[in-house]
Specification:
The protein has three helices and no strands. It has helices spanning about 10-25, 30-50, 60-65.
């Protein structure tokens, strides 16, 4: 007969919270970098969406404004 470990939802939640806190403490820089990159991606997506709503200009006009 196979014996199992009996654990309730409260214990599972507490174990998960404990594990998550440990990972965040030990790998804080990794999580910081992941969230920073995600935030930058969101900003880029919003810029692209805004750009799609604006008037298109030619390459020559862009370089003219840049002084090239």
């Amino acid at each position: 007969m196979q014996q199992g470990l009996l654990i309730d939802d409260t214990q599972i939640k507490q174990l998960f919270k404990t594990a998550l806190v440990e990972v965040l403490e030990e790998r804080a820089e990794l999580f910081h970098q992941v969230f920073l990159e995600a935030w930058e991606d969101i900003g880029l997506a919003r810029a692209i969406e805004a750009g799609l709503q604006t008037e298109t200009v030619s390459r020559e006009e862009v370089f003219k404004l840049l002084g090239d």
